[in-house]
Amino acid sequence: VAASLAAELQRARAQACNELCNVDRTSTELLEHPLGPHVPLVVALDLMEPHEVGCLLRTCEAMRVRSVVLCGKSPAPCDPQVLKTSVSAQEHLSIEHRHCLGEAADELRNQGYAIWCLTGQSGSMRGESRKRAVNKVVYNVGHNNCDVVVPRPLALLVSGWHNPVDELVDVCEGQLCFPTDPESTPLSDSIAGSIAIYEIVHQWDVGGR
What we know:
The protein has about 210 residues and is an alpha/beta fold. About 40% of the residues lie in helices and about 20% in strands.
């Protein structure tokens, strides 16, 4: 009986590990079972480390984002560190380059996109930034945002945590922030950006908004 229980426990653990494992699909699997239509979201990145850019490119592919804009000195997809973490995601994306986030925002706004930015943890925002954001839509990631409509099409501007957010807030109609304890460890750029992208697409898929 003990041997049977041990074998069953081992089988259950192996099954759980297999289900939780993040396995990339092959090109054949992607063709046979595509992810679905692209979502009306453009992601613009600036002041990112190469491995962070690669991770966000991978997130964009998984979340059916078609277009990515790399701004300033953001590393290109051919950078070895980007390639290491993107796992060829750039091959399925339309990637453009612009001088800065402001330039990208102006172009996208002229194309009909609403402009939102990821400002980081709400507890880490400076008072000046809070004042500038008073009349803007604020979407608190992780909270019940039933009264917040995520516009379509949307451009999300994501910059490194060390970059002052004032410039971003100035050019945006809305912002996503993480209402966490200011004493907690900030999320990395790629994790924060990935959560924001997921949150936007999830709202569209589930809420129909």
